[in-house]
Design goal:
Layout: H1 6-26, E1 30-32, H2 35-44, E2 52-53, H3 68-76, E3 79-82, H4 89-95, E4 105-107, H5 155-172, H6 177-202, E5 210-214, H7 218-224, E6 228-233, H8 242-254, E7 259-262, H9 269-275, E8 281-284, H10 298-314
Parallel strand pairs: 1-2, 1-3, 3-4, 5-6, 5-7, 7-8
């Protein structure tokens, strides 16, 4: 009594397994290009599915290449989220190729109402050279994007990205549309709180000048009114020329920059050369999450780490 017959148990087990398989197959196959994008997509897909990460944080977003397996995965995906604006150059090339033809690529840099900042030219730009929107466009060399592509480092841009991700996934997977929208709303509210917390934390060091390795942090500087004085490398992390190093070194001295920040994805040789004899300290800023575990919490961790490292070096 109270014990199921073997046949009944077997039938129940089949139903459970069928339901499990059905649930596993319910979510679309989604790929995100870089750790910050993956974190935002993960938050929107929370409880529904898990996106795949294309580029680990240890890989430069500017200098990546793809394996045949990665190209096949892109071709099989239902949705691929990436930044664009010249950031993931090889991925932009692939998005229009026969290898991934017909798949849905969502270029987040094309979202309406994003804050977009112009590419800063020269290694030693003037402090607070932040032009927004249409005013950001100037005369640029061929092959250089009109806008700085590191849009995710402004949390207000990230909130707009959450909305676009949710709408795109709702179209690809209508049965989970309400869940995507609810998740995006929760994640957006969390970013409101995060922005307020970071602004309060960074306010004491806002006027202290510093130099970065490559010009990846303009959106973070803009949102939190920070005082970067120059970058060793350009917006695409190209190797600096001797002329550029000399420009940045002069700017570092003239601005009395307290810190020069290296990045974990690149050699620190140029940073060491830059600060020699200046008294400036060396810190670490990572715009992409080299050491972060992928997942929905990685975006918050990325911005908190930037804040903590800026405070640690500038606030001594």
């Amino acid at each position: 009594m109270g014990i199921f017959a073997p046949a009944v148990v077997g039938a129940l087990l089949c139903l459970v397994l069928a339901g499990t398989v059905s649930g596993a197959l319910a979510a679309p196959r989604v790929i995100a290009s870089i750790v910050p994008v993956h974190a935002l997509v993960s938050g929107v897909m929370d409880g529904i599915g898990t996106p795949e990460l294309l580029l680990s944080g240890q890989t430069s977003e500017h200098q990546q290449s793809f394996s045949p397996a990665q190209i096949k995965a892109l071709g099989d995906a239902d949705a691929v989220f990436f930044i664009g604006e010249g950031l993931e150059l090889k991925l932009e090339e692939l998005s229009g190729s026969d290898a991934v033809k017909g798949r849905k690529f969502i270029e987040l840099a094309e979202i309406k109402d994003l804050t977009k900042l112009g590419v800063r030219e020269g290694g030693a730009w003037e402090a607070h050279q932040h032009d927004v929107g249409e005013h950001a466009e100037g005369e640029l060399e061929p092959g250089i994007a009109e806008h700085d592509p590191h849009i995710w480092l402004d949390p207000r841009n990230a909130r707009l990205m959450l909305g676009e991700i949710a709408h795109s996934l709702a179209k690809a997977d209508p049965k989970n549309a309400k869940s995507y929208m609810a998740n995006a709303a929760r994640a957006s509210a969390d970013l409101d709180v995060l922005e307020f917390e970071l602004a309060e934390t960074l306010e004491p060091v806002a006027q202290i000048p510093f130099v970065v390795f490559h010009d990846a942090f303009q959106y973070f500087e803009f949102r939190f009114d920070l005082t970067a004085a120059g970058s060793i490398s350009d917006v695409n992390a190209n190797a600096p020329s001797a002329k550029r190093l000399a420009e940045v070194r002069n700017k570092l001295k003239d601005a009395k920059a307290v810190c020069a920040f290296r990045e974990p994805q690149f050699s620190d040789a140029a940073v060491k050369t830059l600060i020699e004899g200046t008294g400036a300290r060396v810190g670490v800023l990572d715009p992409i999450g080299a050491d972060l575990a992928p997942g929905k919490s990685a975006y918050r961790a990325l911005l908190e780490n930037l804040t903590s490292n800026l405070i640690s070096c500038l606030g001594r």
